[in-house]
């Protein structure tokens, strides 16, 4: 049965590739917003199936990559506080800060724990009351509900040794800022399937309404992504611009009501600093009352007060995240910057555009 399913998928991919050729009447640049899309496109060689004149570029959809250097430096500095244990997802371990990384900090003797869920960090705090556990809250709307649930769980347990370094970000605000800048010209956007399961397709209606660009919300298999590209090319050919949901098995038009309720209870909108995009108003969140005691910045204000601005870096990850530079166009790519010795997060993250290009497209 598995062989039959794979054969059907291959046949459908070939058919979609032919259909794209009939729709591509003019050049088109499609931005795949999500880092998982970037990795999937590289892994499956989807760019080789696109008609001449149609290209894919990456956007600011890798949550690790868009985490600002100053936010990472603050989290690393927390690891030097007495009795503090840093808790993070594994994809942050090797991301270079200004002076070290979580991996380097651990080698120096700091306590760094890797978890699969924020709730694991809460359980670690319960098991080690003599330590203070700080979870690195990184990611878009996809991971925000899990962090919110962890904060509510810690409050229910009455924990005093758990907090969150909250640098979560919201995707629509970043896309509005990117498109408003006029720095990169795109013909359409593949919107992130994971994020949209939480916020619903309606959250992206501003893209066709304000910028006249077609969009397609897609999943992460080759067929999913090709269906999204087909939708964008078809809209272009017909002179339309709308948000087409081709990921109906997971995504709905309205926001997920349970997730929206949870996020509203724990978080309030706030400004956030994005790597490569700078400060974007309303694109982040802060922990609201009655949970503010779980905010690591409020718990350890001396750490933020002692931070210095990050030094200049030769890494051009910010330009890659804005879609103005392809990874292979960076003079550091595959030379002084490799997955073994990354100079920036785009080369080390499992959703980074540079990591995808290095692994699959060299």
What would you note in describing this structure?
With 362 residues, this protein is of the alpha/beta class. The two termini are 34 Å apart. The protein has a single domain (13-362), classed as HypD, alpha/beta domain 2 (Rossmann fold, 3-Layer(aba) Sandwich). The protein has helices at residues 2-23, 35-43, 63-66, 69-78, 102-107, 118-127, 144-157, 171-181, 193-199, 206-211, 222-238, 257-266, 296-299, 301-305, 317-321, 345-348, 353-360, and strands at residues 28-32, 54-58, 84-88, 111-114, 132-137, 162-166, 188-192, 215-218, 243-245, 267-274, 278-287. Helix 1 packs parallel to helix 11 (222-238), helix 2 runs parallel beside helix 17 (353-360) and helix 7 crosses helix 12 (257-266). Helix 11 links the parallel strand 8 (215-218) and strand 9. The chain has a five-stranded parallel sheet. It has a four-stranded parallel sheet with strand order 4-3-5-6, sandwiched between helices. It has a two-stranded antiparallel ribbon with strand order 10-11. It is globular, with a radius of gyration of 21 Å.
């Amino acid at each position: 049965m598995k062989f039959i399913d794979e054969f059907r998928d291959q046949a459908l991919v070939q058919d979609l590739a032919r259909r794209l050729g009939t729709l591509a009447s003019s050049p088109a640049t499609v931005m795949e917003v999500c880092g998982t899309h970037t990795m999937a496109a590289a892994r499956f060689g989807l760019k080789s199936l696109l008609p001449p004149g149609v290209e894919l570029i990456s956007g600011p959809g890798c949550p690790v990559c868009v985490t600002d250097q100053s936010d990472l430096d603050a989290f690393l500095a927390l690891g030097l506080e007495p009795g503090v244990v840093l808790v993070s997802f594994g994809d942050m371990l090797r991301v270079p800060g200004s002076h070290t990384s979580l991996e380097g900090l651990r080698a120096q003797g700091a306590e760094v724990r890797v978890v699969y869920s924020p709730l694991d960090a809460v359980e670690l705090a319960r098991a080690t009351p003599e330590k203070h556990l700080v979870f690195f809250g990184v990611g878009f709307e996809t991971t925000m509900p899990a962090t919110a649930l962890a904060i509510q769980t810690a409050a229910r347990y009455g924990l005093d040794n758990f907090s969150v370094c909250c640098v979560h970000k919201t995707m629509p605000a970043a896309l509005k800022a990117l498109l408003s800048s006029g720095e990169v010209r795109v013909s359409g956007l593949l919107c992130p399937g994971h994020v949209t399961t939480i916020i619903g397709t309606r959250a992206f209606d501003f893209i066709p309404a304000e910028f006249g660009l077609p969009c397609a919300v897609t999943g992460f298999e080759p067929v999913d992504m090709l269906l999204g590209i087909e939708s964008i090319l078809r809209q272009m050919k017909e002179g339309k611009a709308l948000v087409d949901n081709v990921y109906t098995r997971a995504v709905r038009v309205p926001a997920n009501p349970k997730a929206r309720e949870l996020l509203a209870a724990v978080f309030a909108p706030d400004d956030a600093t994005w790597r490569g995009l700078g400060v974007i108003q309303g694109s982040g969140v802060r922990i609201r009352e009655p949970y503010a005691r779980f905010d690591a910045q409020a718990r350890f204000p001396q750490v933020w007060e002692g931070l210095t601005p990050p030094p200049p870096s030769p890494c051009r990850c910010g330009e890659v995240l804005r879609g103005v530079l392809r990874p292979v166009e960076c003079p550091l790519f595959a030379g002084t910057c490799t997955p073994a010795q990354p100079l920036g997060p785009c080369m080390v993250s499992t959703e980074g555009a540079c990591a995808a290009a290095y692994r699959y497209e060299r």
